[in-house]
Each structure stands twice: as structure tokens, then as C-alpha cells.
Design brief:
Helix content: 25-40%
Number of strands: 18
Order of helices and strands: EEEHEEHHHEEEEHEEHHEHHEEEEEHHEH
Number of domains: 2
CATH class of the largest domain: Alpha Beta
CATH architecture of the largest domain: 2-Layer Sandwich
Radius of gyration: 26 Å
CATH superfamily of the largest domain: Bira Bifunctional Protein, Domain 2
Shape: elongated
Strand order of the largest sheet: 6-10-11-18-17-16-13-12
Length: 430
């Protein structure tokens, strides 16, 4: 019977065949231990000399790393294994031999591993990171589908910049200028006026010449928009969503978290509500912590965000940033016209901002004023202004960066490990 490593537990004391690759092996005089993987998991195959032919045992000793195989044997309990079972191998069929596999069990430098990213993905820890990434995506669809959101796909080629920045990838669209999207938000606002609650999930591009451990050139964003939704209601949805994702990963990725040696103590504390601190109070807090150079009106850097996050056990919202450092479309704070109704959600343990969101301006004249103040081309935003001309309503939205969230939940240090094929300032290969 053919099966997979993941499904093998359903066949205890049965003989099965599994297609797999050899990740490592060790052997003594009479037993060979084969570390096998098949994409669904990792399992040990035990080859006992007295139980197999001489040819099979010699093959088991000679197999090279990453050779592909069909292994046949009986699935038996093994309480020392994370899986709780292993295979007593009876026969081995080599599919394709691998020779001189470049990534050996020894340590390798980061640049070497990134040059061989197409192979590094096979390692146990990188496999675990991608499985957790997949679970975050699955839980995302589950949350938004269960809460009556409709998925809408915004375009990747756009004629304008949602954030109003110059950090865009430019291309020619026949005889027009176009840009790779840095956010689907403006299109999602249009979709929200048709469907009420919507979300997108897709790639975005930022031409930032940044080399920090938190930045990628190409990354994936989950961007919900909600009609008839104010800022406070949006914050509640954000924290419910993040808590749902965290709990889903804890429930469904136990072996993957263990493979990464992830201490889940802090993750297990992630329940709603999340703490909130205003930008004003955050500036005062930072000064008390010794950040004497921070002044009101400046954006926070990674050290500032980390200091604030370390004060809490949970993700923390920093709310009501100054108007001048935020995009043009954010609704003014009625209690302080110098700030806007927005929030960044800062992850614990130094992983920085994972969500940025706000209530959007719904007044046509104010939005036109903001576009003019930011020296943007009003014609490029004509469709966006139409949303305020024809049945405008209070509405809010946010964007969650997938890779930073993966980094936080997996505990990996750099976001380059959270994308299967990351695009960095100096890397477009593989």
C-alpha cells in the first residue's frame, strides 16, 4: 500500500511503501538508520541486517544524501520519535541517486544557503517555516470567510501610488507609465463599497534600499477593508484576526514549532484584547527609557518599537500618529487635528510592525485637499475620489505583512527565511 509519512500513523503494524528522499543516515555494524522525508513530514526508517537481504542492507549503508527512494516496510510505534512511529524497512528501490549534495549536515554561511535556496528549502527547519506560513494563510482564509468577508483581487500593475512615495518599481505599460503595486488598499476600498467587507491577499513591491532583517523587496500582504466601520471597530477585528492565527498555529503546527525550537510561552498568551498606547504616550515612554533623541512628529524606528513591545506580553497597538508622517488618506483624529485615526500593531520579541491600519477619509473635499497637499496627481486618483462622490460612508482597513508575521511566530531572526524565494536588495536569484 502506498502512503505518506504524515498518513503512516493510520497504518500501524501494516506494510506500506513511501516515496521519500534521504536527508541523513547513520549505521552501526548491524543496523542502519535512515532519516527520510517526503514533503509531508520527516520519519526514521530502521534497516536491521538480520531482517533484510545482504543487498538491501548494503544499499542502506551506501545511499547518499538526497537520493530519492521508494522504501517499503512495516510502520511500528516508537515513543522516542516526535511522530510516535517509524518504519521497519524491508526493501529499498532507488529512483535517482544524488551525488555531492552541496548542503551537508555541517554549518554553512547564510550567503551560501541563500545561493542554494532551492535546495535549502528541503531542510527540516526551513520545511517547518513554510508549513507554518501555510497555516497562517489557511487560518487567514478561515477567519475572513467565517466573518463574511469577500476576497477581491486588486491589480499588480497600477497607475498610482497608494502611499504617495517614490519607492516604486516603474515599468512601461505600452505608452503609459505604470508601477508594481505597493498595496492593494485603494482598490479594496472600491470593493468594500460594493461588498461591505472584503480582503485581498497577494504580492506587493517596495523599492526600498533597505538591508534590515525586517525588510523584503517583494512580500505578501493581507489587506481587509470594511464599510460602515470606524477605527475602534477595526482594531477589534485586527486583534481577533491575529489571535485566531496565533492559536491556529499553536494548535496545528506543534511539530513544526518544535523543529524550530520555538519557545511558545509568549505565543500562548496571545488573547484579546491587545494593549493600546497612543503615539503621544509612546514618545513620553521612550524618553523615560532613555531615548532622549526622539521628538514628537518623528516616526519610530526598530529600537523604539522594540522598547515599546518589550513593555508588554502581547502585541501592542500604537495609535494616533502625527498626520504629517502618515499617508494622505487617513481620517483626522477629532480629538487632535494634528494626528490621525490610525494604528500600527507591534509584535512582541523585537519583530516590529506587523499591521498598519486606519480609518479612511470619507469626505470628498478633505480628500481632495490631502491629495493636493501631498502634491499627487488628482487625475490618477479620480476613481478613488468617486468613492466619496457616490454614497460615501465611514470605512476602515488595515494591512498585515505575511513574512513579518511568519518571522514572529516561527522565531526566525530574518524575514529572508520566511519567503520561499526572497527578493532582497542584492538578491534576485534563485
Amino acid at each position: 500500500m502506498n502512503t505518506t509519512i504524515k498518513q503512516a500513523k493510520q497504518h500501524l503494524n501494516e506494510e506500506v511503501t513511501i516515496g521519500a528522499w534521504l536527508t541523513n543516515k547513520r549505521s552501526s555494524g548491524k543496523i542502519a538508520f535512515l532519516q527520510l522525508r517526503d514533503g509531508t513530514g520527516f520519519m526514521q526508517g530502521v534497516v536491521v541486517k538480520n531482517n533484510v537481504s545482504e543487498e538491501v542492507f548494503q544499499l542502506a549503508k551506501d545511499i547518499t544524501q538526497e537520493t530519492s527512494l521508494y522504501v517499503t516496510g512495516e510502520i511500528t510505534e516508537d515513543y522516542r520519535s516526535d511522530l510516535g512511529y517509524e518504519m521497519q524497512v524491508k526493501s529499498i528501490e532507488v529512483i535517482a541517486e544524488a551525488h555531492d549534495y552541496p548542503i551537508t549536515p555541517k554549518d554553512h554561511g547564510t550567503e551560501f544557503l541563500m545561493d542554494h535556496r532551492h535546495l535549502w528549502l528541503r531542510s527540516k527547519k526551513q520545511h517547518a517555516v513554510m508549513k507554518i506560513r501555510n497555516e497562517i494563510i489557511r487560518a487567514t482564509y478561515e477567519f475572513f470567510n467565517d466573518n463574511d468577508f469577500t476576497k477581491i483581487d486588486p491589480p499588480i500593475l497600477t497607475a498610482s501610488a497608494p502611499e504617495g512615495t517614490s519607492e516604486l518599481f516603474h515599468t512601461k505599460y505600452f505608452d503609459e507609465d505604470a508601477f508594481l503595486s505597493q498595496s492593494g488598499q485603494l482598490y479594496m476600498e472600491a470593493a468594500a463599497m460594493a461588498h461591505g467587507r472584503v480582503f485581498s491577499f497577494g504580492p506587493t513591491f517596495r523599492a526600498e534600499k533597505s538591508k534590515t532583517r525586517r525588510h523584503l523587496i517583494e512580500f505578501w500582504m493581507i489587506e481587509p477593508e470594511m464599510a460602515f466601520c470606524n477605527h475602534q471597530q477595526s482594531l477589534e477585528i485586527q486583534e481577533q484576526y491575529v489571535a485566531h492565527v496565533v492559536q491556529s498555529v499553536l494548535k496545528n503546527c506543534k511539530l513544526d514549532l518544535k523543529a524550530l525550537d520555538r519557545d511558545t510561552t509568549n505565543l500562548e498568551k496571545v488573547t484579546t484584547p491587545f494593549p493600546r498606547i497612543t503615539y503621544d504616550d509612546a514618545v513620553e515612554f521612550l524618553k523615560e527609557q532613555g531615548f532622549d533623541d526622539i521628538e514628537w512628529g518623528e516616526d519610530f524606528g526598530a529600537p523604539h518599537e522594540t522598547a515599546i513591545a518589550n513593555h508588554y506580553d502581547l502585541p501592542v497597538f500604537i495609535t494616533n500618529y502625527p498626520t504629517k508622517i502618515k499617508p494622505f488618506y487617513m481620517q483626522p483624529n477629532p480629538d487632535n487635528e494634528d494626528t490621525v485615526l490610525c494604528a500600527d500593531l507591534i509584535a512582541p520579541e523585537g519583530y516590529g510592525e506587523i499591521i498598519g491600519g486606519s480609518e479612511r477619509i470619507n469626505d470628498l473635499s478633505l480628500l481632495e485637499q490631502r491629495i493636493d497637499e501631498h502634491q499627487l496627481d488628482a487625475e490618477s486618483y479620480s476613481y478613488y475620489l468617486d468613492l466619496r462622490r457616490y454614497g460615501s460612508v465611514p470605512h476602515s482597513g488595515f494591512g498585515l505583512g505575511l513574512e513579518r508575521t511568519v518571522a514572529w511566530l516561527t522565531g526566525v531572526e530574518h524575514v529572508r527565511e520566511t519567503s520561499p524565494f526572497p527578493r532582497l536588495l542584492n538578491r534576485l536569484y534563485p
